[in-house]
């Protein structure tokens, strides 16, 4: 197994640790940030999320640069991304900081695009992510991170940056999904 695939697997293995740190009420204390308390376990979880999200960029870069793209990597990488983002968004709903309807739309888009990619791969077609998808991913990562940190550092000035980023990421999620289906509709139209 090559290094990019090991990085992808490490991202998958970080997900349960992330979930446990966010879900179990550890008594490690918290930091008071303006009007909000940030539990230390949530801070550590946010760092794990950032590390896991960072491995996505590193493994992709490394695989392309050194021509280490494998079928296993093509399968695991998007799976790891969807698992990480879905877990984080569902936890944000449980925390009461993300509306369920927003998360349902975001996760539904991910399932729809994954379905289209499966149909394409059955036809021997590889559908690459476009620039809109990259913007979507970036806005989602920023929104998730800030919300996991209880809106730190913006909580000092009572500015709802995390919530604003959540809706911006929803906008780009929907827009990139529509763009992806329009550009690749021929896959559905021509499938046997």
Write the layout of secondary structure elements.
Elements: H1 3-23, E1 30-33, E2 36-39, H2 40-65, H3 71-95, H4 100-122, H5 131-148, H6 161-183, H7 185-190
Antiparallel strand pairs: 1-2
Helix pairs in contact: 1-2, 1-3, 2-3, 2-5, 3-4, 3-5, 4-6, 5-6
EC number: 2.7.8.5
Family: Belongs to the CDP-alcohol phosphatidyltransferase class-I family.
Function: This protein catalyzes the committed step to the synthesis of the acidic phospholipids.
Order of helices and strands: HEEHHHHHH
What's the rounded overall pLDDT mean? 89
**Category from helices, strands and their pairing:** mainly alpha
Globally, the shape reads globular
Rg from alpha-carbon coordinates: 18 Å
**How many beta-strand elements?**
2
Number of domains: 1
CATH topology: Four Helix Bundle (Hemerythrin (Met), subunit A)
Any guess at the CATH architecture? Up-down Bundle
- What's the CATH H-level superfamily name? CDP-alcohol phosphotransferase transmembrane (TM) domain
Poorly predicted runs? none
Q: How widely separated are the two ends?
A: 34 Å
Strand percentage, roughly?
under 5%
* Largest beta-sheet details: 2 strands, antiparallel
Strand order in space, largest sheet: 1-2
Keywords: Cell membrane, Lipid biosynthesis, Lipid metabolism, Membrane, Phospholipid biosynthesis, Phospholipid metabolism, Transferase, Transmembrane, Transmembrane helix
Subcellular location: Cell membrane
Enzyme class: transferase
GO molecular function: CDP-diacylglycerol-glycerol-3-phosphate 3-phosphatidyltransferase activity
